[in-house]
Amino acid sequence: MIKSNYDIVIIGGGVQGLALAYNLAKNKFGSIAVIEKSYIGSGASSRNGEMLRSAFASNEWIQFFDKSMQLWETLSAELDFNVMFTHCGYLVLASTSKEFELCRENVNTQHSFGLKTKLLNQRDVLKLIPALNPEMVSGGTLQSNGGFARHDAVVWAYAGAAKRLGVDIFPYTEVTGIQVEAGTVRSVKTSKSEISTSLVVNAAGGHAGDVAGMVGVSLPSQTYRLEMIVTEPLKPFLHPMLASLNTLSYMHQSTRGEFVGGAETETLPPAKSLKSTLVATQDMARKFTKLFPGLASARLMRQWGGIVDMTPDIAPVIGPVKKIEGFILDCGWVYGFVGAPAAGELLAQYIMTGKMPPEIQPFNVERFEKGEPIIDRSLVVPSETETEGGAA
User: Fold this and answer.
1) Which residues contact 299 (CB under 8 A, 6 or more apart)?
2) What are the b/e assignments for 121-130, b being 16+ CB within 10 Å?
3) Domain residue limits, the chain
């Protein structure tokens, strides 16, 4: 049963909201409620590619996501649940000389942060993945400790650990309004009852814009649908995770042999529907067979779509909103699965101490007003602020 009062209400029962709830409860913050309008993990948390890396290009992305990668190493033990985190390596593929030079620059930056990355030439990449089309290979960056985890297992792990620590989680409960008085959060109205609280966290994923609108805040983001496909089981041919800068695609092969991948079109139209599209299927098929000609005869098993709240620079927005006291953002995520362990721990630190950890400080929402977007040229999702390469 929902109580009439909570110290904090987290809107969104995905991996971001659950990770934050767990970290707050772990540090004995107080009474915590997680409100989810559908089933737990029903959004992008169960509709992503499961791929994990910190081999990015910018100082901000590397510092934050490597913090998360360190936490992934011990997450199963931390949550007492096997999240199936597996080291298999992560290759960022360059198909042109320009992309290869970009990888070279990125490796130098990554090494300054102590990342385990290595610059590979064409021969190295083809030796690692012989099935690749040689014409699509100029080299790449390999992160040896990159890998993947099961998204459903991660959601269950965080939810179970949070519950054991006293967090109240309410699925199938929709937030219908947030009451603000004199610029301060007072309560949250749901489809079941009204909750008195002075702290609300917007971790609503693809619906974050709607939640922000309840307090009169306009987010610098739009909702987009990203799609993925899965083939029938195939003989092993792709050991590391792979992201292609040239085709804006990302992929891996499951332990059952299925090829799992997604690719983004150069122009993504805003969308909130989860319905899969033929256009995306054709685009992915063309790109994947261009990279791996042997996939041309593979049969598709399934396809799915998920929505994300995407900012112009693809980076998340984390932290308070100056106009509304007690309203905190944890949204704008495209790489939210890999970033969840760090986001949950660091945002919990801010909420408990009032001090913003340096790893998440750059991701404040004010950066757009100041004209200070965070540019990372190693992404494989098209953005409004960077067009040279691109998510995974």
Assistant:
1) 231, 232
2) eeebbeebbe
3) 87-147+222-310
CB atoms within 10 A of CB 72: 24
User: What CATH number does domain 87-147+222-310 carry, 3.40.190.10, 3.40.50.720, 2.60.120.260, 3.30.9.10?
Assistant: 3.30.9.10
Residues 6+ apart with CB under 8 A from 155: 14, 15, 18, 40, 41, 45, 46
Q: What is the pLDDT of residues 235-274, one digit of tens each?
A: 999 999 999 999 999 999 998 999 999 998 777 778 888 8
* Strand ranges in 145-193 using DSSP code E only, listed in sequence order: 147-148, 168-170, 175-181, 184-190
| CB atoms closer than 10 angstroms to residue 183 | 12
Q: What does the alpha-carbon distance between residue 132 and residue 121 come to, in Å, rounded to a whole number?
A: 14
Residue 383 has a pLDDT of: 57
For tokens 């092969």, what's the residue? 253
- Alpha-carbon span 190 to 327, nearest angstrom: 16
What is the distance between the alpha carbons of residues 313 and 372, in angstroms, rounded to a whole number? 10
pTM of the full predicted structure?
Answer: 0.95
Question: Residue 67 is which amino acid?
Answer: K
Q: Which residues contact 232 (CB under 8 A, 6 or more apart)?
A: 258, 298, 299, 300, 301
Environment class of 273 (CB within 10 Å of its CB; exposed 0-12, middle 13-18, buried 19+): exposed
* Residue 69 region by backbone torsions, left for phi larger than 0, else alpha for psi between -120 and 50, else beta: alpha
Given a cut of 70, the residues of the chain with pLDDT beneath it are 382-392
368, burial (CB in 10 Å: exposed 0-12, middle 13-18, buried 19+): middle
162-213 tens-digit pLDDT: 999 999 999 999 999 999 999 999 999 999 999 999 999 999 999 999 999 9
Residue 384: per-residue pLDDT: 55
Q: How wide is the angle at C-alpha 236 spanned by C-alphas 232 and 237, nearest 5°?
A: 105
Strands 32-35 and 139-143: unpaired
Angle (CA) 87-90-92 rounded to 5° is: 175
| Residues facing 261 on adjacent strands | 229, 251
